[in-house]
Amino acid sequence: MAATLERPDAEVPVGPEPGVDRQRTRPGMAGWAGRAAFPLVLLAVGTWYVLSSTPVHSDVLASGVIIAVGALSLNVLVGYVGQISLGHQAFIGIGAFTAAYVMTKSTDNFFAALVVAAVVGALQAVFLGLIALRVRGLYFALVTLSWGAVAEQCVFRLKGFTGGGAGASAPRPGLFDSDRGYLVLASIVLGMVLLIDWRLMATKAGRAMQAIRESPAVAANYGISVPRYTLFAFGVSGLYAGIAGALYASRRLTVQAGDFTFAGVALTYLIVTVVGGLRRRGGIATFSIFYVLGGFYLPQLAKHINESVAANAGYYVQVISGVLAILTLIFQPEGLGTFTAPIGRWLKGERFQLGHGGGGAEGINVRP
Amino acid sequence: MSVLEATDVSIRFGGVQALTDVSIRVNEYEIVGLIGPNGAGKTTIFNCITGFYKPQQGRVVFEGQDISDLPAHERSALGIGRTFQNVGLVKTETVLANMLTAQHAAIEYSPVAGMVGLPNTIAEERRLRARADALLEILNLGDLRDRPVAGLPYGVLKRVEIATALATDPDLLMLDEPGSGMGPEEADHLGDELLTLRKEFDLTILMIEHHVPLVVRICDYVYCLNFGKLLTEGLPLEVRNHPEVVAAYLGEEAPEAEAEAERREAGIVAAELGETSGVSE
């Protein structure tokens, strides 16, 4: 390429800072072996846990895996493109009822229903996105809140679509009918969503979303169509949500309008997304699992304290998760991702070191 | 041949007439300076040219094509690269990620193809990365490649921003006060750098700049704005010595409306950074 421009010494840019600069040294054979062993060990621990416990445990884990997919959907909106959604019960619920509808009305094929649910989820999200192009910030949050309420009160009560009060049934695919089998299926789907999410953020659309979140003006200046990629983000979010909904429906075997409430779904997913870490898919997936395991084991632990604590343990889980969310926002805005991100970087071949990979708190306007 | 021709551009924000019949012409391979006191409307005409504002009157023609009705991102894709007065970068991202984002318009694969990880997208990403690295090397910013933008000093950010503007592959580079915050000596080096860049990348440059010596040294032609109107235009030395320009810079009585207009403009730009919807009317 062209000749290097000369600059005076005084203006030579600040050198690499330890802890911030990425280590680009390549690991050796042993290093790669260790990295390859890591997911295998995780898989082994998971398999051991599933096989040594009752199927109920697998069902609990499956619910965590499904929350992970739903939280990743929320992460696209809140984390990547910077649009708040307080109506995610609509996203998930529409996916769930669509899957159930397809399976009861036309085909028994779970996977066909999954695809239809994903597409319908994407479409309803794009519709909401069209509003987001016109209304912003807090006002848009209100729109999503009302969209959630509309879905709860109207859409989910359409007798023809959701079966009204009786609910709709959603069978599992034969091969994955058992609780353990369904956990495997849900995990495979989560793995695929994680892969898609990774490629999304490593390519054009992901970068466009990040730019739009930071500044629509800068994004447009980079040649990015802000409306187009805002809608795209909504579509992707709805796609994940539709998938999560379909998985949700078949895990429960029947779905009812009452399953998709603001507190039960939208808030839970938001907390999981925030505590897991915005823009930290590893943290979100990990915390989803912790979240359901906590909800499962805490009441059992509470029995050792006394009966009244045990009776109300379900509420404590909610309180604890709420407090966790607040503490996360104050002390560790990157959530659990603070700890999972270094592992992710290590797996990609970088040296293991804690410390954030982008997104320092310092402002950009340091104009003298 | 003229690369950019803005004709009779007028825009008003509420009761403030920010620009009145401003015409600017930039010929190929020229470096054209835009000077004028604070609040004269320099950034406003930039915003009209790049599509952030929709002027009530006037046309903007770029390389023979009328772009007056195109949205900002399409103008950028056509070859207008621009830097902002207050640094327009994605601050949570690294320098490299910004360089990749800036190449958006040149990417051929569809967003969905990227999402599902088709092999050609991975190959193209590699090419984008190589191009970003090459550009950073040319601009001597290679060391900063993996640094988050937030936390870099202001002067460095200004240079990173020029790098990202170049990454959009512009024919016309519009610089909004590239030398702000620089001392005379640094401004002098900036001048050398811009001259070299013009040669390396075959650029046409339109820049707002307050360092008069820098403008006089590198500009081929200069426009001077005052109170939203073209005060004068001509060769750099003519403009600098023009009695009205001297008066405008040294200041006659600055009327209240002037300060008011500037405040409004600052507010609108701030609002604009939060929203992309046009602010016309």
Give descriptors for this structure.
heterodimer; A: 368 residues; mainly alpha; ABC transporter involved in vitamin B12 uptake, BtuC; two-stranded antiparallel sheet; 15 helices; disordered N terminus; disordered C terminus; B: 281 residues; alpha/beta; six-stranded mixed β-sheet; four-stranded antiparallel β-sheet; 11 helices; 43% helix
Detailed description of the structure:
The complex is a heterodimer of chains A (368) and B (281). With 368 residues, chain A is mainly alpha-helical. Chain A has a single domain (54-166, 173-367), classed as ABC transporter involved in vitamin B12 uptake, BtuC. Chain A is 69% helix and 1% strand. Chain A has a two-stranded antiparallel sheet. Chain A is globular, with a radius of gyration of 22 Å. In chain A, 45% of the residues are buried. Mean pLDDT of chain A is 85; it is low at 1-23 and 357-368. Chain B is α/β, with parallel strands linked by helices and 281 residues long. Chain B has helices at 42-50, 72-78, 95-102, 111-115, 119-138, 154-167, 184-201, 212-218, 236-241, 243-250, 256-274, and strands at residues 2-13, 16-27, 31-35, 57-62, 65-66, 80-82, 172-176, 204-208, 221-226, 229-234. In chain B, the strands form two sheets. Chain B has a six-stranded mixed sheet, with helices on both faces. In chain B, strands 2-1-4-5 form a four-stranded antiparallel sheet, covered by helices on one side. In chain B, a hairpin with a 2-residue loop joins strand 9 and strand 10 (229-234). In chain B, 48% of the residues are buried. Residues 274-281 of chain B have low confidence and may be disordered. At the A-B interface, helix 7, helix 8, helix 9 and helix 10 of A face helix 2, helix 3, helix 4, helix 5 and helix 6 of B.
